[in-house]
């Protein structure tokens, strides 16, 4: 039987608890599909800093490279917040593995689960039918450009004396825009055939390059897809005003960071959203929400986003669309039957339907 | 009697129509307060390009500098959208006057009018009591840093050959952060004594500088103000999740562009929001919404944001707080009595309460 090797990165906070449920579901899928999944843990983030001094030890990157897919949980926590600018930070592990594996495409699907529509702060008629995906460029732009800090007279302005100055560089190369545009149009082909490309063309040179290249790729390779341009500030408005109108939204790294979190919040159930980071080699899958250190170790964290990230892995890493649908449908039916973790429960949830992390994992396996 | 000289910039689209109502209200206030306001029009944006070839003719900048305050409407429209990257663009007029007058502080108040709460796509209980102000840094960051485009092998990546590359620079100097932080804390003192400073410290060097300097200014000069830090992606979420919790939100130029539009959209009535751009000399006041070329010339545009920008001018440029309150209260009572322009009318508005642009201006004057 076929064997896939997964590099699992439990990370920090609730990470180890929820990734256990992801593995549980994966094993159940494997059993039913007659496929073997082997999971091997490696260190990342704060846990890696504690053990090795580095948020991304070489051994982790090597293990990830040698695997068939990476399942990440989440990193970070107050323990590693430091005022020392040179102290290693857990997020560097995340940025490092994105760059190290060349994961230039981040897919963040945002979907309303009917059973959870009440959790949104938006009116039900506005969020009804929301089903979009943010395609975020993940290895370019302000995140990876040159940055520096120094002291000189300019930094102080007319105050005299010396002051600090800092800069970051937002850089894009034509091929970087080309390949992410292609991913967006390909995603649209499997969905509703519409792409919204987001930029700030009226100000930024990188945005003008972005818009030109996205249109060239469209005209040459995907003329049948509907393409619209939207300025980033207007997009921030329209995501609130008419979220159901969006299908695929493609944008550069920093805009994507902001807009994907905004879009996620529209659902009101962050604990349900997963993301895939893809390149031309090994891919990585993770929940969208953070490491929630405040509830770590209590067995109450919501594992569903992690479980849904397993579904994304089945689709994108192994082409197992049918098995991915088992997981997605399983989660949907668990919700439809009223099972909740604490974060997605509300006044109408009977106490005996509020499950802990592990019980929720078991429930999904039961419904598979 | 005292005389104030206003440089008025009608701009494009609905600009000339709505600025006429702003002037109307201003004259009514002057009459009642025993103050003379003289308004002199100058060219900006597309109108200036058509007349002179430049979106910000020297004469306009000189007139603005020589005035006591600038009242701007809005610029831009499809007429000046060009695929030629060297063609002058209306927004350059806006960016040029901000830089030319040194308008480094942009105040964008976001407030729910009870009478219009139904226009929001957010649930009524979530937007109830929203009353925040975004303090956006307006002359630094990605907007005014060095940018370039060129061709080289790197631009093409492994495709071989040559490709394009572009970059923009996000730069901040210590004194630039200092002065905007001070404006934010001063604003908080007149409000609910709380400042949220927004950055992306886990990635950007400019954000790390930002956070340090904001805290230094806080600790040295405003220790009594409550200060919290929030990452920009998290802020994009919390503005939807708990908008009523925010008081003053201070951030750099690009984040401020995105977040202020997001916050504006939360109200659902963009046509009601005005902004003030302040520096150490002449200040500028304008509605937050755009030039709406699609409805220009029809006499149906909503002039209330322009009228409210006049109220901001009375406060910030002339220290006429009492007279500003006349205008604000007037607008509020007009709404409470059910008067609407088309954009803020709904099914429950009787047809004879839907007013055109000029009739709405008259109505506010009547209620002053
Ligand atoms: C932790 C941080 C560096 C990261 C990012 O900004 O990309 C996170 O916000 C995300 O969106 O995955
Ligand atoms: C027109 C554009 C350059 C401008 C900006 O980005 O600052 C506008 O969006 C605004 O917010 O005033």
TrEMBL record, chains A, B:
One of its GO terms (cellular component) is cytosol. Mg(2+) binds at residues 233, 257, 261. GO terms for biological process: L-leucine biosynthetic process. The keyword Oxidoreductase applies. Residues 5-364 form the Isopropylmalate dehydrogenase-like domain. Pathway: Amino-acid biosynthesis; L-leucine biosynthesis; L-leucine from 3-methyl-2-oxobutanoate: step 3/4. The record marks 143, 200 as: Important for catalysis. It comes from the Bacteria. Its cofactor is Mn(2+); Mg(2+). It is found in: Cytoplasm. It catalyses: (2R,3S)-3-isopropylmalate + NAD(+) = 4-methyl-2-oxopentanoate + CO2 + NADH. One of its GO terms (molecular function) is 3-isopropylmalate dehydrogenase activity. It is an enzyme of class 1 (oxidoreductase). The keyword Magnesium applies. NAD(+) binds at residues 290-302. Gene3D superfamilies: Isopropylmalate Dehydrogenase (3.40.718.10). Substrate binds at residues 98, 108, 136, 233. Keywords: Amino-acid biosynthesis, Branched-chain amino acid biosynthesis, Cytoplasm, Leucine biosynthesis, Magnesium, Manganese, Metal-binding, NAD, Oxidoreductase. Its EC number is 1.1.1.85. Binds 1 Mg(2+) or Mn(2+) ion per subunit. Belongs to the isocitrate and isopropylmalate dehydrogenases family. LeuB type 1 subfamily. Catalyzes the oxidation of 3-carboxy-2-hydroxy-4-methylpentanoate (3-isopropylmalate) to 3-carboxy-4-methyl-2-oxopentanoate. The product decarboxylates to 4-methyl-2 oxopentanoate. Homodimer. This is 3-isopropylmalate dehydrogenase.
């Amino acid at each position: 039987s076929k064997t896939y090797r997964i590099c699992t990165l439990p990370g920090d906070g609730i990470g180890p608890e929820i990734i256990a449920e992801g593995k549980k579901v994966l094993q159940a899928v494997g059993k039913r599909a007659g496929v073997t999944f082997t999971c091997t843990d490696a260190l990342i983030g704060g846990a890696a800093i504690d053990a090795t001094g580095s948020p991304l030890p070489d051994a982790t990157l090597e293990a990830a490279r040698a695997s068939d897919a990476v399942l990440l949980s989440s990193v970070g926590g107050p323990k590693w917040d430091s005022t020392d600018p040179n102290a290693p930070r857990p997020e560097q592990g995340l940025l490092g593995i994105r760059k190290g594996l060349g994961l230039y495409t981040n897919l963040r699907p945002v979907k309303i689960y009917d059973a959870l529509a009440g959790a949104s702060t938006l009116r039900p008629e506005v969020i009804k039918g929301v089903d979009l995906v943010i395609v975020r460029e993940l290895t370019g732009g302000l995140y990876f450009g040159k940055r520096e800090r120094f002291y000189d007279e300019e930094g102080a302005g007319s105050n005299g004396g010396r002051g600090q100055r800092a800069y970051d560089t937002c850089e894009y190369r034509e091929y970087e825009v080309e390949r992410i545009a292609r991913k967006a149009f390909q995603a649209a082909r499997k969905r509703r055939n519409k792409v919204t490309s987001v930029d700030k063309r009226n100000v930024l040179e990188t945005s003008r390059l972005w818009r030109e290249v996205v249109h060239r790729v469209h005209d040459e390779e995907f003329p049948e897809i509907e393409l619209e341009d939207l300025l980033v500030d207007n997009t921030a408005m329209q995501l609130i005003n008419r979220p159901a109108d969006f299908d695929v939204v493609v944008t550069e790294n920093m805009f994507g960071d902001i807009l994907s979190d905004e879009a996620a919040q529209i659902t009101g159930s962050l604990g349900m959203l997963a993301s895939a980071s893809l390149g031309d080699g090994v891919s990585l899958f993770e929940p969208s929400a953070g490491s929630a250190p405040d509830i770590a170790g209590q067995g109450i964290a919501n594992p569903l986003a992690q479980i849904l990230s397993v579904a994304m892995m089945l689709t994108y890493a192994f082409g197992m669309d049918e098995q991915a649908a088992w997981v997605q449908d399983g989660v949907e039916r668990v919700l439809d039957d009223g099972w909740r973790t604490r974060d997605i429960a509300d006044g109408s949830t009977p106490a005996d339907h509020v499950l802990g992390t592990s019980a929720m994992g078991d429930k999904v396996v039961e419904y598979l």
